[in-house]
Structure formats: structure tokens, C-alpha cells
Design goal:
Helices cover 59% and strands 3% of the residues. By secondary structure, the chain is mostly helical.
């Protein structure tokens, strides 16, 4: 059996560079409770990317989801489209490695679908 790597764990600078934000902004997201830390000075780049895409999708709107889990699920659903049921284990993995449950992932998908008008 091959060992899983933690390729998703990155420093604030590395993760921020993936989505063109500063390392300070990455740390601000964590301090605001929008993304869990993955250890001392490490962050989940996948969570960050989906969080930022979710935030950008709602820029300029009067209403937007307040829960970062919904924003992450919204971005993920937009990316996977109709294949979301098949790819749900991937989202669940993102949630569980960030301290959430598989139920949290399912709830977030439901809320995100509501925001998507589905």
C-alpha cells in the first residue's frame, strides 16, 4: 500500500501564491475562522482555493453565505457540476482533514445547492 502524502499542506506564502493572494491574507482567513490550520504555519491549499473562489463568486452581492463550509462547497459544486454525487467522497475528504465531519460536507452541499438555485 502506498503512503498518502500531504500535498495539500502548504505554508501561507505557498498556498497564497496558488490563488494570487498574499500570505498575510491567508493568515487573516485562518484568524477569522474561515479556514482551519493544518499544523504550525501550514494551511490546506485545496480548502483555500475553494474558499477564495466561493468568496469571489459572491463579490458585490448583497447576500452571500456566511459559513465558509458553504462557500467551499459552492466552489466545489461549480467545478464538478453534475458529477458531484460521484465526487462527493473527495469533498468529504477535504472536510474531514480540516476537522469537519462527512455530515458537515453533506449539509454544506445542500446549502450551496440552495445558493446555486438547485
Amino acid at each position: 500500500m502506498t503512503e498518502k502524502t500531504n500535498f495539500h499542506k502548504m505554508t501561507a506564502a505557498e498556498a497564497g501564491a496558488l490563488i494570487d493572494i498574499t500570505d498575510r491574507r491567508v493568515r487573516q482567513f485562518a484568524e477569522a475562522g474561515l479556514m482551519p490550520k493544518q499544523g504550525r504555519g501550514l494551511y490546506d491549499a485545496t480548502w483555500l482555493i475553494h474558499l477564495v473562489i466561493g468568496l469571489r463568486a459572491f463579490e458585490g452581492r448583497n447576500r452571500k453565505p456566511e459559513d465558509p463550509r458553504t462557500l467551499v462547497a459552492f466552489s466545489w459544486l461549480t467545478a464538478v457540476g453534475d458529477a458531484w454525487r460521484k465526487d462527493l467522497p473527495l469533498l468529504t475528504e477535504i472536510f474531514t482533514r480540516n476537522g469537519y465531519t462527512s455530515d458537515d460536507a453533506l449539509i454544506a452541499v445542500g446549502e450551496a445547492n440552495t445558493w446555486r438555485g438547485r
